[in-house]
Amino acid sequence: MTGAFTLAIMKNLRLRFSLLCLLMALIAFGPLGFSADALPTVTDGPKSRDGIGKYFMGREIAHVMGHQAAAWLERPERDKEEEPTKLIQTLELKPTDVVADIGCGTGFHCFRMAPSVKSVLGVDIQQEMLDLMMGKAKQLNIINVKPILGTISDPKLPAGGVDLVLMVDVYHEFDHPVEMLSAILASLSPTGRVALVEFRGEDPNVPIKPLHKMTEYQARREFESIGFKWDRTVSTLPWQHLIFFKR
Ligand SMILES: C[S@@+](CC[C@H](N)C(=O)[O-])C[C@H]1O[C@@H](n2cnc3c(N)ncnc32)[C@H](O)[C@@H]1O
Question: Which residue in 239, 244, 247, 241 sits closest to 82, CA to CA?
Answer without folding.
Answer: 239
